[in-house]
Design brief:
alpha+beta; Four Helix Bundle (Hemerythrin (Met), subunit A); Nonspecific Lipid-transfer Protein, Chain A; three-stranded antiparallel β-sheet; 8 strands; 42% helix
């Protein structure tokens, strides 16, 4: 067992109550550094899935409620259009709100902007919304494809606790939102979700990057670890390791973590998007070992909220 910490590989033996730290050289199996998640090539095919879905809906389906509180299917579709228009205006064209409307927090500002747009968009027909989305989607895909994935991002990924992000992470965050909203529509209208590894694994691999931020106020001694296993075709395994006074995330699973957390891929996307609201929902997350440490994962978010 091991993890590379500040250039020194620390191996944590977990046979006793207190971890023993052994210095070693070389790579720290079985853990690996987290790699960037590059998803620019997925925007066009994901967009095609969305347009095909929306074109096939009847009037009743557009009014169905969704997991997104207070929004029907038509509201989510309108919100996706707003995302496109705002991204193109600010990111591509350099057009920013100046001055931004006063708000107590970033969350409040975003919620207000979203609500204002959705209210206005209720004047638009479903056909108009889809026609506009059909235009904006390829523009978004082209913009992201042209961006240097390792250049400075237009927006930092706040739910990961970052004040500055690289483009690949900001673009990935945008991908998770588009996948999530399409999933909400699919559930509302009874159409199978995009749960194949091609679509969902990048979403989960991005969402888990919220874990160090989610655990930032969870105190533990160095050597404590949380092993997360997301089961199924789209899943994977990650380890959150406490070292040098903070939590760090790694790809791969320690053989024995202080806490072990298991869930299906379907449960995982719901967890990170605030859709596990009841005790029965949260019971879908299996926790072994240090229960309090493992249960802190229930507060993780891969969305701004």
């Amino acid at each position: 067992m091991g993890a590379q910490i500040g250039g020194i590989n620390d191996v944590f033996a977990t046979s006793g109550r207190s971890p023993q730290i052994v210095r070693m050289s070389g790579p720290p199996p079985p853990l690996r550094p987290m790699e960037p998640v590059l998803v620019s090539e997925l925007f066009l095919p994901l967009h095609a899935e969305l347009i095909g879905l929306l074109r096939g809906l009847d009037a009743e389906a557009w009014s169905r409620p969704t997991l997104c509180a207070a929004w029907a299917v038509r509201d989510i579709a309108a919100h996706l259009l707003d995302d496109d228009l705002r991204r193109l205006s600010s990111h591509r064209d350099g057009h920013l709100l100046s001055p931004a409307p006063p708000a107590a927090s970033l969350v409040e500002l975003i919620n207000r902007l979203n609500a204002e747009w959705v209210a206005v968009a209720r004047r638009l027909s479903p056909r108009v919304i889809v026609d506009l989305l059909q235009f904006t989607g390829p523009e978004i895909a082209a913009m992201f494809a042209a961006a240097d994935p390792f250049g400075p991002a237009h927006f930092a990924v706040s739910w990961a606790g970052e004040e500055r992000s690289e483009n690949w992470f900001d673009i990935g965050r945008d991908y998770t939102e588009r996948w999530l909203h399409q999933q909400q529509i699919r559930l509302a209208v009874g159409v199978p979700g995009l749960m194949q590894r091609r679509w969902l694994h990048p979403v989960l691999a991005l969402f888990v990057r919220s874990l160090p931020h989610a655990y930032r106020a969870v105190p533990r001694e160095d050597g404590a670890s949380v092993v997360l296993e997301i089961q199924g075709e789209a899943g994977g395994a990650w380890t959150l390791l406490h070292a040098e006074g903070r939590w760090r995330l790694y790809d791969g699973a320690l053989p024995s973590g202080t806490a072990q957390v298991r869930m299906t891929a379907d449960t995982a996307w719901r967890l990170f998007s605030k859709a596990l609201k009841t005790d029965a929902d949260q019971a879908r997350v299996a926790i072994a070992g240090d229960h309090d440490l493992g249960a802190a994962i229930l507060g993780a978010l891969g969305v701004i909220a």
